């Protein structure tokens, strides 16, 4: 056998080493970005840096590294895990969680409520019911007799008597009232007798001065006490007797003294804290000019993106919203009061004092709101873009104020024709601004024609009715003062919208009734709102949906993050979008079902009934074997 000499071994080693270097060099050259280095696995070398979210895209280009949204998604993961760690599995643990969070005993019949929830396979986390206490706690500062009498004497009312429901209103048919009665009726057999005054308008109606509400909240805080088991009153007795007397001898109709004169902003901001920007800021009255936008990062954002959803939605903390949202510019109607009384509704502004029920729109089977039984095709079968169809609602848009309406602004901002006009004409757009100096570091810089080209590859947004005021009876879908800026499209059923990956949801006259259906779909909801709903404490932004600011300054950055920009050789995060969409759908199927609305309503009305009872300070559920 021939022996291999040392020089020949060295030569062979040198040849192999050079060949390996050449292969690595060729591989590096044909790869479009140095990002590939992060995905090359070399035995014996291990990265200690945390893994970013999966980042595949339809165009197979590498995305930008270290994006702020990566951080927000990671934070959302932590928040959801923290919520899930609080899950309870038996009535004893649920009652313990209640006492720890609420500072008092659970209401009577808590065990029946828990059994109902458990029998309907509910995920039980005490935090999910926080909105109930935001809404009801101030009523601990109001006498129970006053609550009962105001509720019983209000014109629009749902009543529970002996486990059955009835309603009272001023016309033969109110569809939303019928749906709410049906919702309450689905749990009425377990409820005590109670009256629910109902807000039959789209808009919120009760705004009590912050100072007054704060006084009630101080009373509530002082009243907190975990009553000893032996002292507990465990049945709703006193209120039931009082309601029977009211039914037999009705009071005069309760008049909350609703005001109908605007503007609405000065009426609304009395519900904000005295030191809030809304209370201290300038009150705007001229809405004929372009909106006060800079295109820069919204205040309180994380490098331009929503990190505090409560703050982003708050008019009290964002005084500029008075000129950026139709609710404040000119609502369809105003009927608001400073008088504190119980009024139930489906949504409200953060400074309003209504008691939230799951919206009637969410209880209906109407495909216009529910989307029907179909929730969309598989993610990889969808169109890689945005779809939005809706009326130009949000309030009473007129020639002198339409530039300030949120739906008009969103459609203009994502419309390639309007953006191209802004880029090339030298004339500022009437209702939005292109961000100066590219603060979001977009691949295609705004104010360059390539930006409009990019928008045209993914955006399909249009109004289906311009809702002008005054309306032209001969052509109701068009508007003389906005026709030059908008093309009116045909309506698109929700099931057809599900063919797109991204579904923006924008406030109309109040909240958008399509949001729940979007969450149940296989598409990704992108949400902007100033309204609160019953489910807010059970949804995690960036985990179950994508939040955007009400200025929409961040919408371009959000869409580039998910879609990339193929023309500029920047990849997106399609797999991340799919995970949020599918995760949100799976979560909605756990916590936003019809059964979850029943469970929420059941719990809400047990608490409300306790507030209506003269014995409320000592009322509560007695745990078996205790006391």
Automatic annotation (TrEMBL):
Ranges where the Glycosyl transferase CAP10 domain occurs: 311-615
SMART domains the UniProt entry points to: CAP10
Recorded superkingdom: Eukaryota
Region feature Disordered, mapped onto this chain: 46-66
Transmembrane spans: 12-30
Keywords associated with the record: Membrane, Transmembrane, Transmembrane helix
Coiled-coil region(s): none
InterPro entries xrefs: CAP10, O-Glucosyltr/Glycosyltrsf_90
Pfam annotation, one family: Glyco_transf_90
Keyword Transcription: no
UniProt keyword tRNA processing present: no
PANTHER family membership: CAPSULE ASSOCIATED PROTEIN, KDEL LYS-ASP-GLU-LEU CONTAINING - RELATED
Official protein name in the record: Glycosyl transferase CAP10 domain-containing protein
Organism of derivation: Friedmanniomyces endolithicus
